[in-house]
Amino acid sequence: MDSTCLEPSLYTVKAVFILDNDGNRLLSKYYDPELYPTMKDQKNFESNVFSKTHKADNEIAFLEGMTIVYKSSIDLFFYVVGSAQENELMLMSVLNCLFDSLSHILRKNVERRCLLDNMEGVFLVVDEIIDGGVILESDPQQVLQKVNYRADDNPLTEQSVAQVLQSAKEQIKWSILK
What we know:
It is a single chain. The protein is α+β, with helices and mostly antiparallel strands. Helix content is 42%, strand content 21%. The protein has 6 helices and 7 strands.
């Protein structure tokens, strides 16, 4: 057996991040604490990646020993990062699942403002696709079914006190009746 061959691992994704068209972070999740341990290291890495990819017309980049797949939409850049030995097709399937799921949640309006207005759904989608660097799902329909997120629902902050109390009463009633 070749000693340079690495053992296969379920921990395929090192990081996921979304940047705006100026390179500012909107969302980031790093799954390998040793990779970029501080916020400063992470932001430096993100700015290096953005400067290399924001004008390129590719879908994949190799930078700092990492395999990076990316996609842009209007004023957003989506990135999935894996190790240099990682299968690009696996990373691309994660990226496509993320993009397609968010496209559905944002009603095909994948832009900065809509993304920021629906951040709770965005975090749910990312958490359903990847957990601790392990790819859990790559089918957008399955992700949307698990998340069961509806963008037209009022978040708790936009409900009146009476609506919140009524909802709490109903939940208590149903939990007692079970």
